[in-house]
């Protein structure tokens, strides 16, 4: 995938949460960087993937913002919710503990 700071932040969160095995930034061509992403497999079954579904919560035409108080609703659901705050990308649990709101990006489970 093409390198961007947003993409890098997103895959770092997914690695930390255990959905991806590893991520590495490589130079594809002179001045062009890419992200190499390794997928995690579930337990002994090498064909079963850890990521079941990814829901995009905010779109360019319809942005969805939440306050810190509204994050409790998203923390009770399956998987991990990624939110863009004034302090960068983080999970909804991290944002709630820091009392931050922001734009909902996606939910992965």
| Overall helicity | 10-25%
Question: Biggest β-sheet: count, sense, barrel?
Answer: 5 strands, antiparallel
Radius of gyration: 15 Å
Number of domains: 2
For this structure, what is the CATH class of the largest domain? Alpha Beta
Please, what is the oligomeric state?
single chain
Give the structure's gist in a few sentences.
The protein is an alpha+beta fold and 109 residues long.
Describe the structure.
With 109 residues, this protein is of the alpha+beta class. It folds into 2 domains: 41 residues, Ribosomal Protein S8, Chain: A, domain 1, CATH 3.30.1370.30; 58 residues, Dna Ligase, domain 1 (2-Layer Sandwich), CATH 3.30.1490.10. It contains 3 helices and 9 strands. Strands 5, 6, 7, 8 and 9 form a 5-stranded antiparallel β-sheet that branches. A hairpin with a 2-residue loop joins strand 1 and strand 2. It is globular, with a radius of gyration of 15 Å. The mean pLDDT is 90.
List its salient traits:
two-stranded antiparallel sheet; alpha+beta; Ribosomal Protein S8, Chain: A, domain 1; 109 residues; Dna Ligase, domain 1
